[in-house]
Amino acid sequence: MNFISVENLSFKYDSDGEKLIETSVIKNLNLRVNQGEFLCILGHNGSGKSTLAKHFNGMLLPCGGKVYVDGMDTADEKLCFDIRSTVGLVLQNPDNQLVASVVEEDIAFGPENLGVPSAEIRERVENALKAVDMYDYRNHAPHKLSGGQKQRIAIAGIIAMEPKCIVLDEPTAMLDPRGRNEVISTITKLNREYGITVVLITHYMDEAVKADRVVVMDNGEILTQGTPQQVFAQVDLLKSHCLDVPQATEICHKLKKLGVDIKTLPLDENSCVDVLMEVLR
Amino acid sequence: MRDIVFGQYVQQKSIIHLMDPRAKLIFLVAYIVLIFCTFNFYALAVPVILAVVMMLLSKVSIGKYLKSLKMIIVVVIITAIFNLFYGGGQVFLKIGPISITEGGINNSIVIVLRILCLLIASETLTFTTTPTDLTDGIERLLKPLKLLHIKVHEIAMMMTIALRFVPTLLEETDKIMLAQKARGADMDSGGIVKRAKALVPIFIPLFVSAIRRAMDLAMAMECRCYHGGEGRTRMKTLRFSRVDVFGFILFSFVTAGIILLDIFLPHIVR
């Protein structure tokens, strides 16, 4: 079932009178996000992926085309808060997303804005904290937490609004490897156990491997899409657009080029070992 | 830089910690008015005793109070000296145009006690109330001002955000200072003008980053459906408890006592 559907979307930033510069960020883009799926949008800097993310919850409105969220048109101002509580957006820098100086009060911020009754907010906050495994930190000050923990709090703040879908705009870009793992496993858990639709925007290929579907963006257009397996098999196409593939895939791709008999390219270390063992046997 | 403790909340389990922030704020304001309505030493003794009782009840170590008094002691001494020469009544000592009188001595004793009481009372409030509770209390108390089109919710929200970002920006200042030092900036030598100039390369990046953070935060708040104070509910509802009622009763007795002492005992010479 289509949950978010993007139809012929195009978007330009105002170019402040410098009319010579073509500032079209997204060009005629069509995309469907299905209910309950884990979609990953890949692309290098300036490919328009963050701009696309902001269209999913109406933070930016299309210059051309339409974006529908759960049947609602994002351009409809009356539905603004319905849309934003249906599709939660988590941003890159965890420090700049937290509002209050106590963790649980920060998480309560979303539901408070929605006018949820006090007792229910309390319940939602506790559930959200448990969902991201941060319940023990509910009375801490956010600035004393690690980057990964802060980002999980930011995610919990969105979860507390009980959205059907979370869009994460490079949530791990500013984190260390440990923080990245924490955040990615939290996202995966929310998708698998809570059935929340996840749109993960990233430029780390290793994170994309865990998704159900991968969309690769380049220059405001969709370059290719499919399962991680299908997308990363196109090593040369990705490379020609300055995008990386997971290390395991790249090694096997190079071996394959050298004439080693490899049928399917692996996506992570374990399957890479399996493939290599197969070849060596 | 890290040593600055903002809000100075001290975690303890005391009666005063349990009180509603609104009650504490009302008491503080009433108390300040009361200290300045005492016209003889008997009446002044009441708020002084009350201050000591509050200090003990708050279970915050006396050392913390003394530490904060240390910062203001110079001001206290200077005011005391100035007041010494100002007043009427019997003259004790006369050097040229300056004279020390009975009224002057009374004045300086009164002013010192008043300042100390004022300080202890406000310290008790900040020691026993978390910054968030405090802003919450202020927001709710000032709600009637909405009728005058004063944006109470917005002011309270700004205070909350400011409190949240103080540690973050302090951390950032540290980082920028280190980065500039690493590039050869000299901040620890030279006269005042030179040192002040040395701060420019710290403040400019700090402002830029603060503005950037503000834009990010605004975006994040909008993503979480923030649209001002209208239709907003709160997770923590403030409720007056028995402690507050007890406080109100006690406080009314204190007020009555001070007024009676003021009326029935002679005023001191000023």
For the terminal residues of chain A, how far apart are their CA atoms? 44 Å
Strands in their spatial order, largest beta sheet of chain B: 1-2
Helices and strands of chain B: which structural class? mainly alpha
Helix content of chain A: 25-40%
Number of strands of chain B: 2
Could you give the order of the helices and strands of chain A?
EEEHEEHEHHHEHEHEEHHHH
Low-confidence stretches of chain A: none
The rough form of chain A would be described as globular
Q: Distance between the terminal alpha carbons of chain B, to the nearest Å?
A: 45 Å
Most extensive chain-chain interface: A-B, 40 and 30 residues
Report the oligomer. Answer: heterodimer
Secondary structure class of chain A reads alpha/beta
Radius of gyration of chain A: 20 Å
Largest sheet of chain B: 2 strands, antiparallel
Estimated share of beta-strand residues of chain B: under 5%
Textual characterization of the structure:
The complex is a heterodimer of chains A (281) and B (270). Chain A has one domain: Rossmann fold (3-Layer(aba) Sandwich), CATH 3.40.50. In chain A, 39% of the residues lie in helices and 22% in strands. Chain A contains eleven helices and ten strands. Chain A has helices spanning 49-56, 80-86, 103-113, 118-131, 147-159, 177-194, 205-208, 228-232, 235-240, 247-257, 269-280, and strands at residues 2-12, 24-34, 38-42, 64-69, 72-73, 87-90, 165-169, 197-202, 213-218, 221-226. In chain A, strands 6-7-8-3-9-10 form a six-stranded mixed sheet, sandwiched between helices. A four-stranded antiparallel sheet of chain A has the order 2-1-4-5, covered by helices on one side. In chain A, α4 (118-131) crosses α5 (147-159). The longest helix of chain A has 18 residues, at 177-194. Chain A is globular, with a radius of gyration of 20 Å. By secondary structure, chain B is mainly alpha-helical. In chain B, 67% of the residues lie in helices and 3% in strands. Chain B has ten helices and two strands; from the N terminus they run ααααββαααααα. A two-stranded antiparallel sheet of chain B has the order 1-2. In chain B, β1 (91-95) and β2 form a beta hairpin. Chain B starts with 14 loop residues before the first helix and ends in a 6-residue tail after the last helix. The interface between A and B is medium-sized, with 40 and 30 residues.
